[in-house]
Design goal:
With 565 residues, the protein is of the alpha/beta class. The chain has two domains: 297 residues, Aldehyde Dehydrogenase, Chain A, domain 1 (3-Layer(aba) Sandwich); 197 residues, Aldehyde Dehydrogenase, Chain A, domain 2. Helices cover 37% and strands 17% of the residues. The chain is built from 16 helices and 22 strands. It has a seven-stranded mixed β-sheet with strand order 14-15-16-13-12-18-19, with helices on both faces. Strands 9-8-7-10-11-21 form a six-stranded mixed β-sheet, with helices on both faces. Strands 1-2-4-3 form a four-stranded mixed β-sheet, covered by helices on one side. α1 packs across α4, α3 crosses α7 and α4 crosses α5. The longest helix is centred in the first third of the chain and has 23 residues. It comes from Pycnococcus provasolii.
Length: 565
């Protein structure tokens, strides 16, 4: 059922609209003395109402110090809750991509030569600005991608933390690292320097945060960036571009929007792009890697953070140190957080047989407490998935699983199917792309539900008997992004940590992420790492410098020429 919006929801939507509308009155003025050095190319991004009963915004790219597009082609942005168009974003052409890359290339010499302390100051100013606008940015994020407002607030807080972390991490590093090669005739060092122009291609489930996982370390390293967010959720990335432009030179961060098959491919293959960093699906990741490798200027390095089908393994002894209700909450958080749209979701649940029935009962009880409502409301714990296409995709996965013999094990989950007359529990709002949390049992390990990424609040559950069986089942997948284990036996937890083929291991929890810790996976989950110190290294080139310090000693390898004297 749908109730009238509360004053809280109205206020937050008003905040979001005001923040988007503010782009129309912004200018290329900046608080940073560095900004004028690159020079203004035009006027800042415009936003205008396009004449409908409810305000709809039109937003251009953020390129250099102006906003425009080479054509009138646009992409609609749909609020997943109201199912109404809230904005139109420019659909980037190859000409737009080239202009953005050229602006980044033009800004590179100044930004790369700026002292680390000045870059640190600029990035802290960016963080301060984002922090001041936290609620408004969170409201835009929720309106654009459907995640609960309180989750969006967490995301924006993590954005602030990431900018501060990388500003300080880069500033305290030495550019030169001395190396003892064991020969006193040679003095050697490694010089680290900005890699160049970075193409960052990012997903819709954490629009601003996952963009900043790439943008913050790249800018801290002295690189310039062209950011291409998903066409399904670009609004906070455009706002990010405007905020960065206030504190950094024009062209340091450029944001282009639109359909990825056009602009993303052109960006990844552009000869003036020096590095590509991508987060998204496996098929798109393959295309990005191919484009980067096939660039006319030659292959370029690429980081890929792709999909996952992560396991959560619960041993029977876990309840000796944790309440079963607490375990159930972590398990639920692991597959339903962000409306289940998270690459690291622990969407395969393995439970040791003695605990199986009790844990499923605890999960059912937890799921029954979830409040599904307008995601702007305080207390919302599940919102709509990002688009109607994603909604249909998730429910089609569930229908296929049922056809393959799976069973829905929680009340309300049966509404999450395409086959029924009702696609949501009666307590859910009547608008919005809502998928209720769904527990699937009787799932074969060869089935698509067990093996493929669904990207919705769906978990597949199986029982196991032995530790060896649990590890074998956990590893029996093409992905290797993350994993979780619950056990009171520290030795067993350590054995799991060593035996699991995944880049992330959670013990007694699921999904915590810290910008100080690297993030990435094995196998089909991609290669390279975001976050942590390694996240900064992604954007630094290394020069090996060798000086012969014994010039008085000849090499004495080739015969000396005969003297003619």
């Amino acid at each position: 059922m749908s109730a009238a919006p509360s004053s809280t929801s109205v206020l937050r939507r008003s905040l979001a609209s005001s923040l988007l509308a503010s782009l129309s009155t912004s200018s290329s003025s900046s608080s940073s003395s560095l900004v004028g050095a690159v020079g203004a190319v035009g006027a800042v991004g415009a936003v205008s109402a396009v004449g409908s009963p409810e305000e709809v915004f039109s937003l251009g790219h953020v390129i250099g110090s102006f906003s425009s597009a080479s054509s009138s082609s646009v992409v609609p942005c749909v609020d997943p809750f109201s199912e109404k168009v809230i904005a139109h974003i420019a659909n980037a052409s190859t000409e737009d991509v080239n202009l953005a890359v050229q602006c980044a290339k033009a800004a590179l010499p100044l930004w790369a030569s700026t002292t680390k302390q000045m870059r640190q100051k600029a990035l802290h100013a960016v963080a301060d600005d984002i922090e001041r606008q936290k609620d408004g940015l969170a409201a835009v994020e929720t309106m654009d991608c459907g995640k609960p407002f309180e989750e969006s607030v967490w995301d924006v807080e993590d954005v602030v933390t990431a900018f501060r972390y990388y500003a300080d991490e880069a500033a305290q590093r030495d550019d030169i690292q001395r190396v003892d090669v064991g020969d006193e005739d040679y003095k050697c060092h490694i010089r680290k320097e900005p890699l160049g122009v970075v193409a960052a291609i990012t997903p819709w489930n954490y629009p601003m945060l996952m963009a900043v996982w790439k943008v913050a370390p790249a800018l801290a390293a002295g690189c310039t960036v062209v950011l291409k967010p998903s066409e399904h959720a670009s609004l906070t990335c455009l706002l990010l571009g405007e905020i960065v432009r206030k504190h950094c030179p024009a062209g340091v961060l450029n944001v282009i929007t639109g359909v990825g098959s056009i602009s993303g491919a052109a960006l990844a293959s552009h000869p003036d792009v020096d590095k590509v960093s991508f987060t998204g699906s496996v098929p798109t990741g393959r295309a990005v890697a191919h484009a980067a490798a096939a660039s006319a200027a030659g292959p370029k390095p690429a980081n890929l953070e792709l999909g996952g089908k992560s396991p959560s393994v619960v041993f029977a002894d876990a309840i000796t140190t944790m309440r079963i209700d607490d375990i159930a909450e972590w398990v639920l958080f692991g597959f339903a957080w962000t409306n289940g749209q998270i690459c690291s979701a622990t969407s395969r649940l393995l439970v040791q047989r003695p605990l199986y029935d009790a844990l499923l009962d605890a999960l059912r009880a937890r799921i029954a407490t979830i409040r599904a409502c307008d995601p702007m409301e305080t207390g919302c714990r599940i919102g709509p998935v990002v688009t109607r296409a994603q909604y249909e995709k998730v429910l089609a996965h569930v229908d296929r699983a049922l056809a393959d013999g799976a069973k829905i094990a929680n009340p309300g989950g049966e509404h999450g199917t395409l086959g029924g007359n009702r696609r949501r529990p009666p307590s859910y709002p009547t608008s919005g792309f809502f998928v209720p949390p769904i527990m699937l049992t009787n799932v074969e390990t060869t089935s698509a539900a067990w093996r493929e990424e669904i990207f919705g609040p769906v978990v597949c559950v199986r029982a196991f008997d032995t530790e060896a069986e649990a590890l074998a089942l956990a590893n029996d997948n093409v992905y290797g992004l993350a994993s979780a284990v619950f056990t009171s036996d520290e030795g067993r937890a350590d054995r799991f940590e060593k035996g699991i083929r995944a880049g992330i291991v959670w013990k007694q929890c699921s999904q915590p992420c810290f910008c100080q810790m690297p993030w990435g996976g094995y196998r089909s989950s991609g290669y390279g790492r975001d976050l942590g110190a390694q996240g900064l290294d992604n954007y630094l080139g290394q020069k090996s410098v060798v000086r012969y310090a014994a010039a008085h000693k000849p090499l004495d390898w080739y015969p000396a020429p005969q003297s003619k004297l």
